[in-house]
């Protein structure tokens, strides 16, 4: 099973035997590092190896892009995402990650470690020590330096064979096939001058859209300052690449050079709108001209275009190219200006996501937060040093989304840091305290969550915002529910709802607390009626998060009222919504309810398999089964009924088999009715 692995692009040239050699090394060693200078093709070779030679008898291959990370604090979170761990525990992220991987047989690929080397060394050392079934493949400009590491040096392509073939392939893609003998001779000379370095060859070939190959060869030889046939004086490969990148920069138009420099501020792959808003502006590069300039840079292989998860196109630069752009951005004196624009853009996105939370754009908001994680963290870091009150606003706006998507540790750390830096009278303080309280509640630290709810209430009273007041009531009610106090939760929600004001989203949260409380008090008909009414409102507004927990309550109520078929339908509706949001905690809850519904309906084997799938998701959130107290008897009844239906031996075998399965596959299977 390949997880989170980029699609392998077409046009892999040469290195026919190397993936098999690396696979052989991975079979003998638990840590293999592909080393070599920038632009030599380490990442491309690692991707080829991951796609073509996944280890047999294992749980699969997981890929982690480290190049977007500007801060080693994000390393563990990036690896956790790659292995589908959505940590809700209160332990350290490293501890939870090693526990999750302890009994798995995985190949973990860490691409581009060099800028996070000390942190990567520490994490890989711990993972290999505590996870005996784990094998790690890394790419880095230098080895990690750990015991037992096998460092495989990725060399440039042989200039007269594979190097020439790569250049010819890219020349044809640029619309300049090497048809004439003179063109082939110039290309052969050029590949020798460039030492067969893949990125340098691709940048040179991209210029054939505008220049004949002979001119490309002459100009690069001149810049490299090489006598025509003197191989002994050839410069180091890093100089070869830097010279080629610099020459590509010289040949770019002023607008292309400016966009190249400005794009260096962006961390991850981004859409065209983001590039235009962050990098456009001024007479030299108006925002309306950015799409055309971006396309020109892509044609010159300066920018890589790749399909986005939403079907659109996203843009990024390779490390070496981005480093060159950052150098020129500093020369232009725009480094701080672009960091400001970058932070302003992503703060604006978070404001829009928060405004549109209860509505048809909610899913887009969750996806944006997940896709832009590295850029959002970079914006937060910048604002902490320049405008702490806006850093607090950004962290507060992201906290709930991060909590739902499994970034609880990072959300807690970012919110705590922003609260320390921001002034006490910052307008976003109540929202930040609320988001941090939700994080602590989901981590199981109910005492801390209750204290934060008190602080949030005081801050909300000082600000006088109705939405903050409603969110405070939601947090207090949530803690009451999790601690088995449904009467207190109901009273809290009703006190908040009897006061006028507040947006639809925060009011719906409080009404949701009241429904949970009614169910916990055994007032099932009343809870069912109100949940049905709210479900209609959510459908009218195209909202998913509240709707998913309404379906959860309706499934639980149907189960308690002896309507297992209805319960299964609502549980599947909840799971479908949680799958779209990316909420592993909610998915685990939904699978438990679906298993109980199937058991009550007499489908013993399916119930056992779905229950095992739920255990897999509970492991993925880093702690045993949780939820409100009324779920405990439901789970016990599910296990008892299922054992009676299929027998103890088959039950245990089926649950254990599902618990060791692939979460996404198990969820897809559970969502299939019948």
TrEMBL record:
Coiled coil: none annotated. InterPro entries: P-loop_NTPase, TPR-like_helical_dom_sf. Gene3D superfamilies: P-loop containing nucleotide triphosphate hydrolases, Tetratricopeptide repeat domain. PANTHER family: HTH-TYPE TRANSCRIPTIONAL REGULATOR RV0890C-RELATED, REGULATOR-RELATED. This is Regulator. The lineage of its organism: Bacteria, Bacillati, Actinomycetota, Actinomycetes, Kitasatosporales.
């Amino acid at each position: 099973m390949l997880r989170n692995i980029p699609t392998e692009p077409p046009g892999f040239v040469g290195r026919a035997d190397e993936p098999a050699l690396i696979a052989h090394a991975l079979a003998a060693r638990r840590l293999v590092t592909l080393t070599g200078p920038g632009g030599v093709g380490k990442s491309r070779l690692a991707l080829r190896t991951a796609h073509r030679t996944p280890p047999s008898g294992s749980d699969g291959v997981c890929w982690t892009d480290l190049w977007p990370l500007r801060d080693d604090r994000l390393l563990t979170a990036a690896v956790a995402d790659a292995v589908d761990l959505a940590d809700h525990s209160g332990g350290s992220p490293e501890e939870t990650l090693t526990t999750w991987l302890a009994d798995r047989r995985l190949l973990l690929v860490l691409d581009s470690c060099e800028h996070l080397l000390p942190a990567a060394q520490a994490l890989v050392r711990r993972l290999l020590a505590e996870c005996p079934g784990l094998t790690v493949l890394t790419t880095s400009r230098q080895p990690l330096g750990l015991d037992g590491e096998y460092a495989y040096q990725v060399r440039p392509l042989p200039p007269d064979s594979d190097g020439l073939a790569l250049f010819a392939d890219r020349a044809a893609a640029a619309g300049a096939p090497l048809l004439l003998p003179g063109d082939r001779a110039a290309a052969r000379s050029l590949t020798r001058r460039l030492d067969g370095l893949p990125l340098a060859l691709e940048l040179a070939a991209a210029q054939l859209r505008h220049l004949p190959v002979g001119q490309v060869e002459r100009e690069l030889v001149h810049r490299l300052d090489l006598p025509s046939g003197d191989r002994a004086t050839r410069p180091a490969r890093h100089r070869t690449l830097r010279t080629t990148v610099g020459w590509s920069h010289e040949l770019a138009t002023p607008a292309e050079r400016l966009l190249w420099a400005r794009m260096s501020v962006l961390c991850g792959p981004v859409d065209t709108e983001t590039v235009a808003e962050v990098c456009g502006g001024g007479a030299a590069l108006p925002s309306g001209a950015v799409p055309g300039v971006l396309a020109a840079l892509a044609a010159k292989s300066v920018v890589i275009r790749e399909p986005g998860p939403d079907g659109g196109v996203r843009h990024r630069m390779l490390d070496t190219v981005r480093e060159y752009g950052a150098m020129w951005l500093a020369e232009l004196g725009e480094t701080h200006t672009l960091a400001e624009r970058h932070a302003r853009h992503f703060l604006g996105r978070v404001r829009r996501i928060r405004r549109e939370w209860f509505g048809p754009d909610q899913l887009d908001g969750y996806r944006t937060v997940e896709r832009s994680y590295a850029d959002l963290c970079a914006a937060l870091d910048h604002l902490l040093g320049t405008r702490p009150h806006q850093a607090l606003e950004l962290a507060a706006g992201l906290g709930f989304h991060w909590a739902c998507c499994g970034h609880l540790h990072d959300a807690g750390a970012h919110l705590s840091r922003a609260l320390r830096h921001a002034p006490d009278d910052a307008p976003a303080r109540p929202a930040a305290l609320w988001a941090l309280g939700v994080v602590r509640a989901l981590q199981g630290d109910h005492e801390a969550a209750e204290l934060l709810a008190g602080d949030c209430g005081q801050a909300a009273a000082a600000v006088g915002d109705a939405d903050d007041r409603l969110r405070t009531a939601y947090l207090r009610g949530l803690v009451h529910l999790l601690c088995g106090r449904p009467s207190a939760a109901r009273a809290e929600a009703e006190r908040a709802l009897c006061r006028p004001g507040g947006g639809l989203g925060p009011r719906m949260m409080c009404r949701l607390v009241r429904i949970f409380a009614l169910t916990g008090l055994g007032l099932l008909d009343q809870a069912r009626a109100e949940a049905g009414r709210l479900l209609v409102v959510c459908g009218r507004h195209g909202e998913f998060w509240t709707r998913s927990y309404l379906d959860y309550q309706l499934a639980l109520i149907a189960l308690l009222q002896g309507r297992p078929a209805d319960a299964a339908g609502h549980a599947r509706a909840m799971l479908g919504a949680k799958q779209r949001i990316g909420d592993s905690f909610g998915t685990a809850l939904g699978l438990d309810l679906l298993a109980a519904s199937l058991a009550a309906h007499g489908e013993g084997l399916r119930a056992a398999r779905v229950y095992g799938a739920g255990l897999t998701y509970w492991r993925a959130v880093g702690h045993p089964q949780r939820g409100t107290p009324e779920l405990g008897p439901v789970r016990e009844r599910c296990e008892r009924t299922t054992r009676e239906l299929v027998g103890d031996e088959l039950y245990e075998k089926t649950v254990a088999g599902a618990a060791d399965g692939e979460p996404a596959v198990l969820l897809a299977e559970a969502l299939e009715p019948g």
